[in-house]
Design a protein that fits this description.
two-stranded antiparallel sheet
Length: 279
């Protein structure tokens, strides 16, 4: 992809729109072989000196996902295979569980799950691939540019985390941590709310919306009376009966005029917490 060296990414630069001065290819090799903190560039407005190495790395990985998913692969099935080498090296350095394009680390994986698909580089709407490639909670199950609308930085935003991943299982075809995914699930505990409407941002606009949408509240921001998280569908048949699949994300705010007492915020914030499995 970069025969003259790894590009030097700066804030605001886009590989698709401009040509950048290339760094020597040895830069990435030296970083992999070194004991340096786990980050190479990030979009943080916070000084790296007050961020942990892992926080820097998480922001770096998001920038990689954002840039990587802006591109088109010849074969859709290669979505995870094309970054498996990089993921394998990072997994050995960090010893953090790699789960279908994401890193299962407490207090960061929950933010990673709140990814949002946007239109593809060719202008087409994002869609979930028909041939199984990854669990529905992974961005790798979607064709489209991935962005992280919430918690794009490790600053003091004042948000409250309400849902926590308790376990993650990934089965790969070849048995390696970064190999082609055969199946996967996460077990997460958080507030669940049922609503008979489709007021969420769908991952795939062509996917028929269920009559009942299950809302898993992941985070809340009291000062703005805002809650956000995942929109789910309960599976009623098959081997995954009783489990859930992701169908989108949501973000609800209490209207100061129509909802002065914050009933919308309270409904999702104080909903009963349940342990569920998402596939």
């Amino acid at each position: 992809m970069f025969p003259k060296g790894v590009p030097d990414l700066r804030r605001g630069d886009d590989l698709l729109s401009r040509s950048l001065a290339a760094r020597p290819l040895g830069f990435l090799k030296r970083w992999i072989a070194s004991d340096d903190p786990i980050y190479f560039n990030h979009w943080s407005l916070v000084s790296p000196s007050i961020m942990s190495s892992w926080e820097c790395f998480c922001l770096s990985w998001r920038s990689i996902v954002l840039d990587y998913t802006s591109r088109s692969l010849t074969f859709e099935k290669d979505k995870l295979a094309a970054i498996a080498g990089l993921a394998s090296v990072i997994q050995r350095k960090t010893r953090v569980q790699y789960i279908a394009g994401m890193w299962n680390s407490r207090f960061s994986i929950e933010y990673e799950l709140c990814w949002k698909p946007e239109e593809q580089a060719n202008g087409q709407a994002p869609f979930r691939v028909k041939e199984y490639r990854a669990p529905t909670w992974s961005w790798a199950s979607i064709e489209g540019r991935i962005s992280y609308r919430y918690k794009r930085d490790y600053d003091l935003t004042g948000d409250t985390q309400l849902a926590f991943v308790e376990d993650a299982e990934i089965e790969t075809i070849d048995g390696t941590p970064t190999g082609p995914v055969k199946s996967g699930l996460i077990r997460i505990r958080g507030p669940l709310t049922e609503k008979h409407d489709g007021a969420f941002n769908p991952d795939d606009q062509a996917d028929p919306r269920p009559k009942t949408v299950i809302y898993l509240t992941m985070f809340a921001l009291y000062c703005d009376q805002m809650v956000w998280g995942l929109a789910l569908r309960r599976l009623e048949s098959g081997s995954n009966q009783g489990r859930y699949e992701r169908i989108g994300t949501f973000c609800f705010c209490s209207d100061p005029f129509d909802d002065a007492d914050g009933s919308v915020y309270k409904k999702f914030y104080y909903a009963p917490k349940q342990l569920i499995a998402i596939v």
